[in-house]
Amino acid sequence: MKSLPVLALMAAAVFCFGAAAHAETTLRIGLAEDPDILDPTLARTYVGRIVFAAFCDKLFDIDEKLNIVPQLALSHETSADGREVTIKLRPGVKFHDGEPFDADAAKFSLERHLSFPTSFRKPELAALARVDAVDPLTIKLKLTTPYSPLIAQLADRAGMMISPKAAKQAGDKFGLHPVCAGPYRFVERLPQDRIIFEKFADYWNKDNVFIDKLVYLPIVDSTVRLANLKSGGLELMERLLATDISDVRADPKLKLSTALSLGYQGITINIGHEKTKGPLSQSAKVRQALDLAIDREAINQVAYNGEFVPGNQWVNPEHPYYQKAYPVRPRDLDRAKALLKDVGIGGPIVVDFMVAKNVESETVAQIIQSMAAEAGFDIRIRVTELASALKQAEAGEYQAFLLDWSGRIDADGNCYIFHKTKAPQNYSGYSNLDVDAALDDARLVSDMAQRKSIYEKMTKSILEDEPIIYLYHRRNLIAHSASLEGYKPMPDGLVRVIGLKLK
Questions:
Q1: pLDDT tens digits along 262-308
Q2: Beta strand segments in 261-399, E
Q3: What is the mean pLDDT of residues 27-53?
Q4: Rounded mean pLDDT of 452-471?
Q5: Domain 57-176 annotated CATH 3.90.76.10
Q6: At a CB cut-off of 8 Å and minimum separation 6, what does 139 contact?
Q7: Coil, helix or strand for 130?
Q8: Predicted pLDDT of residue 262
Q9: Backbone phi and psi for residue 108, each to the nearest 5 degrees, phi listed first
Q10: What are 225-269's pLDDT values in tens digits?
Q11: Burial 408-441 (b: 16+ CB within 10 A, else e)
Q12: Parallel, antiparallel, or unpaired for β 194-199 and 184-190?
């Protein structure tokens, strides 16, 4: 007679275990800023790219060693003359609205990048003249010239595929409710508060998606992000402060993942749009003097606990395209003062220094301010919210701008849009015909030695003209809960959600 309660208890235990096994799992990710619009054609922020990685698959992706790997495309083949690229697409893929991903959809997405007003992808696909749908799973890209960075561009936002049906219905409001073909589908966004996604049941690689819901939380203060991670309010945070590394390593409930960034931080100098036509914008010698007044290693030690890598080029010293013939110069205060004396400037040179609002950037700006003062500069720091700072940079409403670039896998992505005359992110208004020619020529060849030789000549010009004073290359510092398994640090700093599990 006692067997029934025992059986009932066993059944209840099995039921509870089953319920626990199927309980909804949520991964909460802390972001350093609120992303801009979630439309891959119009977006431009780094945090936006982190969010896109969860819901908007691309034609290609990268692995930990920067190899380009298939995503929505299975393969690519370039013609002998470099003017045609044939891409085979993955079968059986659906967009979040149930529409099929095929050659027509890929053609639509690429053409939208090229033709949509205010598209930030158009310059990245500048050589693309036409897209042909050869058959339901094959597209052919017709190029005006050979374009070596193309596949690398298609492994980023230019290669993101969106639902034609949803995009046509939404027009320029697509970013308010984006529909892509990634592992998670968009649910809702509360600006400055949270962005919510849920697992897409028909994802082509659904067997490797283990978490039910993603919540992205913009928390500007890194100290507050870390406090949330420690208290269990987050499972992962991006851009940990370098000064907090030892704290994370000492906590058994947390883990740290690091990878040297593909990008850089530098001081962009307003040369072509500067309203007052001050000495910094008008004289390369003055810009060189400011450069020589800065001790990069001291900044690294004070602001970043020695964790970052000092640099003077648009790629880091470990990158295959780094020009070793032009190493980082040490601080030379005497030479800086001599250059200013040559220019014949009397009295301190006043500089409006725009800095995005965050603890690290403000600390770096203060160190630079102190160092530059010894050479004869009066740096006036102006802390500005990032989105506003970018708008002011576009409008030329600054003299110097401390700008962080997240980096791209091809060297072209770190220099062309910043140094080419009238390029969309050439905030300095810099124009040098020799540099323009080198930037264009490097896109025509695929051989690394040939491209590096072209970039070497360009490097000399840019280090002399100094439209950007390159400072260092950060490490992507991702801290996460020990309960999160499967996280892999990536050189681009983006959080791939495929394969992640929560204990």
A1: 999 999 999 999 888 899 999 999 999 999 999 999 999 999 999 99
A2: 264-269, 309-310, 349-356, 377-384
A3: 95
A4: 96
A5: yes
A6: 86, 87, 89, 103, 106, 107, 110, 131, 132, 133
A7: strand
A8: 94
A9: -60, -50
A10: 999 999 999 999 999 999 999 999 999 999 999 999 999 999 999
A11: bbbbbbbbbbbbbeebbbbbbbbbbeebbebbeb
A12: antiparallel
Q: Helix crossing, 284-292 with 359-375: angle to 10°?
A: 110
Query: What is the residue extent of each domain of the chain?
Result: 26-31+198-260+476-502, 57-176, 264-473
CATH 3.40.190.10 fits 26-31+198-260+476-502, yes or no: yes
Both tokens of 188, joined, read: 């809702």
User: Is CATH 3.10.105.10 what the domain over 264-473 is classified as, yes or no?
Assistant: yes
113 sits in which H/E element: helix 103-115
CA dihedral 161, 164, 166, 167 (to 10 degrees): 80
Q: Which residues contact 96 (CB under 8 A, 6 or more apart)?
A: 55, 163, 179, 180, 181, 182, 185, 186, 200
Q: How far is CA 469 from CA 420, 492, 502, in A?
A: 16, 22, 42
- CB of 124 within 8 A of CB of 410? no
Grade residue 104 by pLDDT with cuts at 50, 70 and 90. very high
Q: Token pair of 68, please?
A: 């380009």
3-state secondary structure 77-107: EECCCCCEEEEEECCCCECCCCCECCHHHHH
Would you tell me how many other CB atoms lie within 10 Å of the CB of residue 40?
28
For the record, the structure tokens of 108 come out as 């639509």
Q: Determine the Cα–Cα distance for residues 58 and 499; give it in Å rounded to an integer.
A: 17
